[in-house]
User: What shape does this take?
Amino acid sequence: MPAAGATDSLGLVVSADCNLRCAYCYQDRKQPRQMSWPTMSRALDLLTSSNRRRADVTFLGGEPLLGYPLIVRAVRRLGRRFPARRRPDCVIATNGLLLTPRRLAFLERHRFDIQLSFDGVAAAQDLRAPGSFAVLDRLLDRLRLRHGAYFRRNVMLAVTVTAPAIPHLADSFDYLLAKGVEDIAIGPAMGHPRLSKAQAGELDRQFGRIFTQSRRHYQETGRVPLRLFRKSAPAPRKPARGPLACVAATGRDLAVDVDGEVYPCALLIRSCQTVARPALAHRLAAMSLGPVTDVQGLLQRRAQLPDAARAARIFGPQSRKRSGLDRCAACRYTAACFVCPIACAKNPDSADESRIPDFQCAFNRIALEYRRRFPRQP
Assistant: This one.
């Protein structure tokens, strides 16, 4: 097979279906489809032919554990194809409801990083999936008591914030700390309507409590569980200097959909989501890199990706964008802003490609102000 170039990360959409139907999920077109083994096998070849010394592979959905046998088969193939020193790091993004003791033991044995979506206390989690809190609460207990070292090193809790969940945010953070979680990511839902002034004020109060608790925890333990407040970690990987401020424009990360179509970002997959605005949908579809079976075509379209990203008109520098709150160029947090450009495709506030969703803008301005105040770690 011809060399497929430098691939830092490979995402595999194991299933386009999910056992939940969370109202805020950007994947708004779930369907009962799974990746076939021939497709997954060809996708894994993108890693074996990469010139990177080490990459990572992430199993995605929908809910990837709906295709658990495929994951097992993929891990065995990676074990046969790579020497230990070059074996890709494995990651799984899951809602955790299908994570049985046997499956958890498999993930630990193969040193998976687990990205567990869980919104916190019952009042918050029930907004997402009624009745799921008790299952995940027991899962955290099992992880802490039976897989303690693995839990601390390899499990990250991802909390997604919607406006109705804002009053529960600090309680959810306190709950996760009490459960022994040492890696927590908090982020705003994509495609969410704007915040009212009262909701923004409440979000500020909730982050104030999280800031106080995080600072106390850091002073007592030396640890910073909330990723947002970590200042000693390496800076996030960025593309080369230029007019395209998103790694999706570089082709260094690849995502393979259930049908074998390759994209430069998992947020661009088409099997389980829609883009409501036809013109933008057409421009984003042009960023597809083609079927995984067409390696030569993949190389050619990868080289053309910057042009396709420019034509999509949502990947320009943050400084050229704006929200309903302000122009990004006038915002003190522009350099640190973590609003994904593809969020513009799900923006309920505007059809303008340069318009940052107001909900995400308000969330980031509040969150980044508390990050600015948090002590720098050695």
